[in-house]
Amino acid sequence: MKNTIYIMIGTLLFALAVTQLGMPNSIAEGGIVGIALLIYYGMGLSPSISTPIIFVLLLSIGVRYLPRHMVYKTIFNVVLFSFFIWVFEGMFAQPMEDTLLAAIFAGIITGIGFGFIYQAGSSVGGTSILARVFNQQLGWDLTGTTLALDAVVVIAGIFIIGPVYTMYTLVTLYIGKVVTDFVLGGFDSKKALNIVSPYSEDISKRITHDLASSATVFYGEGEYMKEQRRVLYIVIHTHKLLQLKRVIKEVDPDAFIVVHNVKDVSGGFISGASF
């Protein structure tokens, strides 16, 4: 039930972004929705009609390469999306004076919608179906192939909506990707750090005292000097990153620090990393 609600909310938001911001301002998309929008701009055929047709064609090619649960969820999603497009198309939409503003907010709303859709394990991309076929038959990388197919759709827009609106489309896609990552990973973002220093024990004590956090200790050996060193690993909230780096530099200005982006953290000690 939870997944169904997520799909409905996400698809509703995506349909609103397409009908209220995308279509009135000649902004396209990636995947089968992007193809449907290009058909709409070129021939005037509503995406509510072309989207399910394109999806059925793709599904007939790649259905045997997809997990059953994904097929069912995606069919439901595409039908729901087409229905919402049919409901909202032309209802309120008006071209905006600032197309860039339309592209930005289309990306924000689309990103939130995709976040809900992906949380439910569904998709409206369509090109992922072909990517799975190429992966199974030719061994092509799944993620890279999906990206390449989406890129082909976007580039095709140059010949239909022109280079300027294609660039607006790229703005929408980029912002949508960033917002989707926020929705999936949470707004309470975190960073992971590897710290190598001969003063690692002092750094660890300062981390515990000043930041009320903890660190995990690994032992590594440098290839050049063949010296074994303690390596501290810590996960912290992003807003504490500058404070942590300041603490480290106060103890050892020459400490070797590597910072990683963290998608998701669960369990353990919330403020730091204690395993």
UniProtKB/TrEMBL annotation:
The main place the protein resides is: membrane
Give start and end of each DUF2179 domain: 214-267
Q: Which GO terms describe its cellular component?
A: plasma membrane
Which domain of life, per UniProt?
Answer: Bacteria
Question: Membrane-spanning regions, if any?
Answer: 38-59, 71-88, 100-118, 138-161, 167-187
Record InterPro entries: DUF2179, N-reg_PII/ATP_PRibTrfase_C, UPF0750_membrane, YitT
Q: Which UniProt keywords apply?
A: Cell membrane, Membrane, Transmembrane, Transmembrane helix
Location in the cell reads:
Cell membrane
Short name of any one Pfam family annotated for the protein: DUF2179
Bilayer topology = Multi-pass membrane protein
Q: Which PANTHER family match?
A: UPF0750 MEMBRANE PROTEIN YITT-RELATED, UPF0750 MEMBRANE PROTEIN YXKD
Task: Give the protein name, as stated in the record.
Answer: YitT family protein
- What's the source species' lineage? Bacteria, Bacillati, Bacillota, Bacilli, Bacillales
